[in-house]
Amino acid sequence: MAKCEICNKSVNYGNQLSVTRSHISKRTSRQFKPNLRTVKSIVDGQPKRITVCAKCLRAGKVKRA
Fold first, then answer.
1. CA-CA distance, 34 to 12, in Å (whole number)?
2. How far apart are CA 48 and CA 62, in angstroms?
3. CA distance 36 to 51
4. Contact 3, 9 (CB under 8 A)
5. Who's near 34: CB < 8 A, 6+ residues apart?
């Protein structure tokens, strides 16, 4: 399963609601997937490819190679 290696964010589950005539008639399950990017970063002094979510990239939690 895809997961951010910095914050361990992974897939969340919820309901997809079908709305007809102002009534919720059906609920089906759906997935909320994280926005993951594969980047080359410095890990233990060595360049390495890791999978990171976009939120961690913007926050500066990853030192890029």
1. 8
2. 12
3. 6
4. yes
5. 2, 3, 4, 9, 10, 11, 53
10-62 pLDDT tens trace: 999 998 887 776 677 778 899 999 999 999 999 999 999 999 999 999 999 99
32/46 Cα distance (integer angstroms): 32
Is the overall model pTM greater than 0.70, yes or no?
Answer: yes
Beta strand spans in 10-59 (E): 12-20, 23-32, 36-43, 46-53
**CB of 12 within 8 A of CB of 31?**
yes
Strands 46-53, 36-43: parallel, antiparallel or unpaired by DSSP? antiparallel
Give CA separation, 16 vs 3, 8, 29, in Å.
22, 24, 6
